[in-house]
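C-alpha coordinates for chain A. Residues wanted.
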Protein backbone atom coordinates (compact mmCIF):
# COMPACT_ATOMS: atom_id res chain seq x y z
CA UNK A 1 0.00 0.00 0.00
CA UNK A 2 1.37 3.42 -0.98
CA UNK A 3 1.54 6.16 1.65
CA UNK A 4 -0.64 9.23 1.13
CA UNK A 5 1.17 12.41 0.09
CA UNK A 6 2.14 14.69 2.98
CA UNK A 7 0.05 17.89 2.70
CA UNK A 8 2.77 19.95 4.43
CA UNK A 9 5.39 18.84 1.90
CA UNK A 10 2.95 19.57 -0.92
CA UNK A 11 2.28 23.07 0.50
CA UNK A 12 6.01 23.80 0.57
CA UNK A 13 6.51 22.49 -2.97
CA UNK A 14 3.57 24.46 -4.35
CA UNK A 15 4.78 27.63 -2.61
CA UNK A 16 8.27 27.15 -4.11
CA UNK A 17 6.60 26.88 -7.54
CA UNK A 18 5.04 30.31 -6.96
CA UNK A 19 1.49 29.05 -6.65
CA UNK A 20 -0.76 30.87 -4.19
CA UNK A 21 -1.19 28.38 -1.36
CA UNK A 22 -3.27 28.09 1.79
CA UNK A 23 -3.06 25.50 4.54
CA UNK A 24 -6.14 24.41 6.47
CA UNK A 25 -5.55 22.68 9.82
CA UNK A 26 -8.06 21.03 12.14
CA UNK A 27 -7.46 22.81 15.46
CA UNK A 28 -10.39 21.57 17.56
CA UNK A 29 -13.01 18.82 17.40
CA UNK A 30 -16.14 17.91 19.33
CA UNK A 31 -18.04 14.67 19.23
CA UNK A 32 -17.40 12.28 16.40
CA UNK A 33 -15.49 14.52 13.99
CA UNK A 34 -14.09 12.41 11.13
CA UNK A 35 -10.51 13.80 11.22
CA UNK A 36 -8.33 14.40 14.29
CA UNK A 37 -6.76 17.66 15.42
CA UNK A 38 -3.69 18.34 13.29
CA UNK A 39 -5.18 17.02 10.03
CA UNK A 40 -4.30 19.20 7.02
CA UNK A 41 -5.72 20.26 3.68
CA UNK A 42 -3.50 22.26 1.32
CA UNK A 43 -5.19 24.34 -1.36
CA UNK A 44 -3.75 26.29 -4.29
CA UNK A 45 -5.10 29.45 -5.95
CA UNK A 46 -6.76 27.40 -8.71
CA UNK A 47 -8.67 25.19 -6.25
CA UNK A 48 -6.45 22.11 -6.44
CA UNK A 49 -6.13 20.45 -3.03
CA UNK A 50 -4.52 17.55 -1.21
CA UNK A 51 -5.25 16.11 2.21
CA UNK A 52 -8.44 16.21 4.27
CA UNK A 53 -9.94 18.05 7.21
CA UNK A 54 -13.28 16.21 7.33
CA UNK A 55 -13.28 13.14 5.13
CA UNK A 56 -15.15 14.99 2.38
CA UNK A 57 -17.88 16.61 4.49
CA UNK A 58 -16.72 20.25 4.32
CA UNK A 59 -13.71 20.29 2.02
CA UNK A 60 -15.59 22.27 -0.66
CA UNK A 61 -16.44 25.04 1.80
CA UNK A 62 -12.85 25.12 3.10
CA UNK A 63 -11.48 25.37 -0.47
CA UNK A 64 -13.82 28.32 -1.12
CA UNK A 65 -12.70 30.12 2.04
CA UNK A 66 -9.04 29.37 1.23
CA UNK A 67 -9.37 31.30 -2.04
CA UNK A 68 -10.16 34.43 -0.04
CA UNK A 69 -7.29 33.76 2.38
CA UNK A 70 -4.88 33.43 -0.56
CA UNK A 71 -6.24 36.64 -2.11
CA UNK A 72 -6.18 38.77 1.06
CA UNK A 73 -3.45 37.12 3.11
CA UNK A 74 -5.78 37.22 6.15
CA UNK A 75 -6.17 33.91 8.02
CA UNK A 76 -9.61 32.62 9.03
CA UNK A 77 -11.03 30.35 11.69
CA UNK A 78 -13.89 28.23 10.33
CA UNK A 79 -16.35 26.18 12.35
CA UNK A 80 -18.57 23.44 10.98
CA UNK A 81 -21.14 21.21 12.60
CA UNK A 82 -24.76 20.16 12.62
CA UNK A 83 -25.80 22.92 15.04
CA UNK A 84 -24.60 26.00 13.16
CA UNK A 85 -26.34 28.16 10.54
CA UNK A 86 -24.60 26.36 7.65
CA UNK A 87 -25.85 22.92 8.70
CA UNK A 88 -28.11 22.62 5.66
CA UNK A 89 -25.34 23.74 3.27
CA UNK A 90 -22.35 21.90 4.69
CA UNK A 91 -22.11 19.71 7.70
CA UNK A 92 -20.54 16.70 9.24
CA UNK A 93 -22.60 13.62 8.50
CA UNK A 94 -21.26 11.98 11.65
CA UNK A 95 -22.76 14.71 13.82
CA UNK A 96 -19.51 16.14 15.18
CA UNK A 97 -18.13 19.66 15.01
CA UNK A 98 -14.73 20.91 13.90
CA UNK A 99 -12.77 24.16 13.87
CA UNK A 100 -10.39 24.65 10.97
CA UNK A 101 -7.73 27.37 10.80
CA UNK A 102 -6.88 28.49 7.26
CA UNK A 103 -3.69 30.47 6.61
CA UNK A 104 -1.64 31.54 3.62
CA UNK A 105 1.63 29.70 2.96
CA UNK A 106 4.71 31.43 1.63
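Reply:
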Amino acid sequence: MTASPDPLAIAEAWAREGRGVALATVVETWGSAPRPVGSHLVIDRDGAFEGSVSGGCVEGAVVSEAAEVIETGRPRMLEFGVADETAWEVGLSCGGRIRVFVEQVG
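The first helix runs from residue 7 to 16. The beta strands are 21-30, 40-44, 49-51, 76-81, 97-105.
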